[in-house]
Amino acid sequence: MRPRAVPVVLSALLLTAGCTSSAAGEDEGADAAAVATSAPDQRLTVVADAEPVASAVSASRALFDEAGVVVVAPDGDRAATLLGASAAVGLGVPLLLDPEGEGSDDAVAGELDRLGAQTVLAVGADSAPGDADVVAVRASPDAVAAATGLDLAEADAVPEDGDAAAVAALDPDAPAALRPEDADPAEGEADGELPPVTRAEPLDATVVLASGSAESLAGVATARAAGASVQVTAGQTDPRASADAVDAIAGAETVVALGTGFGAEDGLDWKVETAATGTQLPGGGQTLFPQHFMVALYGHPGTGALGVLGEQDADAAVQRARDTAAPYEALVPDATVVPAFEIIATVASEFPTEENDYSYEAPVEQLRPWVEAAGAAGLYVVLDLQPGRNDFVAQAERYRELLELPHVGLALDPEWRLAPDQVHLTQIGSVGIEEVNRVVTWLADLTRENRLPQKLLVLHQFRVDMIPGREQVDLSRDEVAVMVHADGQGPQGSKQETWRVLQGVGPEGLAWGWKNFYDEDAPMLTPEETIAQVSPRPQLISYQ
Questions:
Q1: pTM greater than the 0.70 cutoff
Q2: Which CATH architecture has domain 307-543?
């Protein structure tokens, strides 16, 4: 396990030091422009400048120690920036931006000086900040090719919203010219040629997470020029949310988060460390919603009296869960449908049990084969607690070793949470919000400590007074996705009214679940009816 490290937040006003690498050799010639890349010392570096010019400078400082040649393009000139990115990646040097093309920005001049730039390729401009020699070219593949010696014969058209992805896909070993989709390649000549450039060894152990926002575009080019891999997150700033980002981070030694949004992502350091495990949820990624849609069988192993899950053995239940979930795949095209088990781990008892808590606590050894069979088959598992007179946290602790598995979440069933003088089937139980929030904290801490994917915490409810104060449920812990599961049964009109009332309690940010009862609903909704009639659409449909 890697030790956690506090991220470095890099701005255009800060410098970082790192391990440098350069491909320069004695046979390269005295006139070659040297380049040295720099892997950040810290596990996580955040480049969150709001302005494109500052962001480009910070990205250069994060990844390069030296560059005898640097590419500069006017800030705000899309055609020049895309072509400048092509040149920078092809040469293996940073891309900086010049505010309004005026050639007078102190921060850019300072970065050119730090890099030891002797020559600047000014794409789409006549000048550049600083005192380096300037080779000025029009934003034309022909002109850039003439100045750099790169083969840029083909110009790839980039759609309006595709700049970051196109630049991230540039191959340093096979340069390609980029241009806006609505613009024809301009013609032009260069006013000189660059000296030969000695490309540094690539930073192939560094991954750059790029939000894809406009201010980060030059930094994406600089990252590719340095040989770092770039994963564009399309505005998503939680690295756990993307299966591709998790895969990328798992193979990296250092991570650079590039984009304004990353600076505001609470807990980015531990989220990166969680992603670094490479462990993924069923369906991919490390966060649950909205990218997943679950369909679960509910019950207790070994008996059909408590739900359909126990009507067959574990392997047959896996297949039944898959079959139950399958119709939803065509109905929910914007999410990955994940079959699931909701296993009643502790079963409410009408009579006193061995510990006098009116709850039968199934041994871990009884549940483990079901949990492991589900995990091996790509199913999610929720362990359901019916605690009687016991405490939800105390019961959850009994199943810690199962909850430490990445595909296992937790459900609380307040109907079966008794006061000291209550018994089941005489009163409907309830749980105070303080106890619920203690479970949130306990489960979130377990998740963070073990660097696990986000956990699902389900709160079963069919009456408001089952969870008094629910509007105060703690949603601040990103380690946990809290769901209210409306598990009332009976006529559809009554179920819809329960759904409406529970939706009105709040708070915003909850996930939602719906239960279909084979025998008690009148009638039970088909998958098509469930999606059409239950609004807003739930993230979990369970069957009992």
A1: yes
A2: Alpha-Beta Barrel (3.20)
